[in-house]
Amino acid sequence: MSLGSDVESLKGKLALGALKLIALLPWRGVQALGRAIGWLMWKIPNRSRDIVRINLAHCFPELSAADREQLTGRTLKKIQGYHLPKAPVLGFGRQKKNLRVRS
Q1: Is 63 exposed, middle or buried (0-12, 13-18, 19+ CB in 10 A)?
Q2: In whole angstroms, what is the distance from residue 76 CA to residue 46 CA?
Q3: Radius of gyration, alpha carbons of the chain
Q4: What is the value of pTM for the model shown?
Q5: How far apart are CA 75 and CA 58, in angstroms?
Q6: What residue ranges do the domains of the chain occupy?
């Protein structure tokens, strides 16, 4: 195996392990962690932040740069606050959730 594939395999295992740990947290804890990760994504340079900034500049050219930056932060926090809580629903926790809809 090459070093690149070993690194990718390790990344995948770490991500899966993190999801399993996150699934053990209470719901509010998962949401708070999602918002914290979103805040970090806003503050640390990354591709997602750049994409959000570009999209908001195209969608809201009338906003000032400062207003768009605040919106970037709120958007990234909301995105992570929405996606991260899916870990328990995906069955990574101690017990799988029953997602059937009753009629």
Answers
A1: middle
A2: 11
A3: 17
A4: 0.67
A5: 15
A6: 3-89
